[in-house]
Amino acid sequence: MNVFAGVGGGAAAMEAVPAGGGGAGVLLELTPHKMAVCHLVQVFAPPAQAGGGAALPFPFESVSQHNRLGLFLFTLTRSCEDFLEPPLEELLRQLKAVDDLANGWLCEQLTSALSALNSPDDLFNFFDKLRSVLTAPEGASVEDVFLDPNSQLGVFLRCCILAFNSMTFEGICHLLANLVIYCNSTDASYDLAEDEDFMDADIGVRGGIFDKYSQSYTTEMHMGESSSALTHAPMSLHDFDEANSSKVDSNPKCLRSRSQLEAYLNRQADILEKDPSSVPLNSFNATMTELQSLAPELHHVQLLQYLNALCHDDYVGSLDNIHRYFDYRGMQGIFGRSVPPSQDIVVGKYENALLCLGNLHCYFGHPKKALEAFTEAVRVSQMNNDDSCLACILGAISNLLSKIGMSNTAGVIGSSFSLGTNIGLGTPLSIQQQLLVLLKRSLKRADVLKLPGLLSFDHLSLAKYDLKHVQRPLVSFGPNASTKLRTCPADVCKNLRLSSRVLTDFGTDVSSISNDNGSFSSSWLRNLSAASNSWCSSSAKSGKLHKNDFDNFYYHAQPSPIPAAVLQLAGSAYLLRATAWEHYGSAPMVRMNALVYATCFADAASSSELSLAYVKLIQQLAVFKGYSAAFGALKNAEKKFPSSTSSHIQLLRMQLLHERALHRGHLKVAQQICDEFGALSSSVCGVDIELKAEASLRHARTLLAAKQFNQAATVANSLFSTCYKYNMQIENASVLLLLAEIHKKSDNVVLGLPYALASQSFCKSFNLDLLEASATLTLAELWLALGPSHAKRALGLVYQCLPMILGHGGVELRARAHIVLAKCHLSDPKFSVSEDPSAILDPLNQATEDLQVLEYHEMAAEAYYLKAMAYNHLGRLDEREEAAASFKEHITALENPQNEEDSLVY
Question: At residue 211, does pLDDT exceed 50?
Fold first, then answer.
């Protein structure tokens, strides 16, 4: 996550701020650590000499030695592991791991060079030599090698030189004093000689005049400007260690450069997004508060505190921080629209604040307040002609309407800025029609404004809409009226394919262009420190460090040319593909797309979306391999995503436990889990509507298993009304099928037929092929229950749905189909078991084998009962008695459940 989206950053992009006294501008604060790096750069790339050719500089003996020092210097200027510069002791420790020259030449050269800087004249000569590093000598040819001034190290040197030129004499004296403290912070072998005359001069170094020195830079700077006022930090707060916050160190500690601070904040935002459970709420806030006290102009610290509070469900804290962020941040819009400081009204600031506020209310389940904020944001964006923000607001409103159930928006969107009414009629548009209009408007604006990220998001939203809604025309009568009342899978696949084009189109969006964020450099230095520590501990034994010990990096640490936000959008397309194939009933495609996401997009994915991919894979295991395999995979998933922090994993655990409890006949445990489902959902009307629907559906199934048919039918009818109110047609198909099951088991077969036919009709309209096969199977059971005269019709329905079930159905659905097939043959008066016993025994044997994996006692008892009947017709008494014993065993386990508490253990 880039919290500086649209905000200029980096060393070369920083604006000058006035320095104390002189009024000149500096790009960064010159510190002893930066001077040490400058010296090492001078060793790496000494001043070029005419006719020198491409020979290696002294003292390097090989290209690998030279390149290793260059990589080390590059990582020092890009690392974002912490916001404080390391002390000299740490720098020397890291340098020892790189320094494979004789007798540690680089470390000795660095300390001797720093010890020679005893006066302002020495500093002047030091930076004068640095200028020659960037300047080509007279008479230089193309073959001569010198440092490119526009490279990363070249820009760093130029900034340091400019900072030195901008310093006052008083500032130079303070730099010398800090340099003495910086060098003396190491062991005694690195103590620097002090010039007594210089230290006794009338500048008061010994008197502590400069102990609290800070150049009189302005304290209030706009975003994108230098962090030169960020000087001494009293403590290190890295890794959110509260215990270390009380430690006091007399060594001078300075903040890193502005680009490294931005990279550090972006990295913390990535951690919050990927693994919020690893970030303690209070200690993270303490770290950010301390950083903000050191850098008052870094208002994005408040944005991180807002994200932290959001991840920990702290409504008051998140609301307070988002208000403070937009109250005090600089004159820069999130979408890259900058304005001159003299302008009174900040274009882009107010509507961006309203957009974030609406997303906040949406996250916490306040749809009315969210719509109010979004509506006001639309009005302000239109007034300010902020097209980019307006397109994003339209996308946010469509996302709200698709996620939160709303039966009407009267009084909220029904303003002068609403979407209007039906064409040619005086009636307002329905929620679904408003959602479709919003999506198409946002898509059109994103295409015109060349916003590939928003364009991809809108294509994903349209794919979701096409998956769950039948697109009815606004004019639904007349000779040109469409009679098509089905969803179109081709449109879903088309939008999913178009959304993936963001991988190739992201370069056209200026705000999405991503440079190296410092993660690779941080990883490099972290491995380097580990190698140096290992060398220190094992030096007594081996005395030698393998120079490639720290060159092995994890793949995810290497910089990617594609921004993480772009990868997340591309990965979301695969997750949505998996969801679409779940609806359409293709299990292999579900597994394939979920595996692609978990394999290829895991590094850029948030913990929520990655856990969702794991959930889909575990659900497939439960459906096709049984509960043992599913619970084994669930244990591994819980180690990666604790159920206390991942709602997807928590819901999956409850779903599996409820299914297993129903199959075992442990109804008390099943009802307990249903109550937990209801407690997870919000009490606000329309919020968590899908979770509430699932809780009601499972409650009705539990009542059905307890043979409380009237109560189960009441719950199912109420759920059908709720789903109809919020236009949840796919859920209605499952509810209608459940009502048919309730009437079938309550011996009201005739009443169950309309529900089964209606469910079948819904499934055809939404292309729910596997659910349609299940509805067809239920319809066959209902016809079969009407008497033997309907056995032939029921058999025809079974053969109609059997290919789909055997090809894509799970073990339970396959076992059920085999049992119904055997029942059709046994009920047919024209069928003789003795003539074709395999037509009965083969499907029943397959059914009992599948049901053994699921521990489904009720269905297994029915299968063994039919086997006993078949063996009785064949006169095979031993097999009949064996099947009868198994039947009795499952019936006893169902009617007299033992150790129900075991259903909660896995």
Answer: no
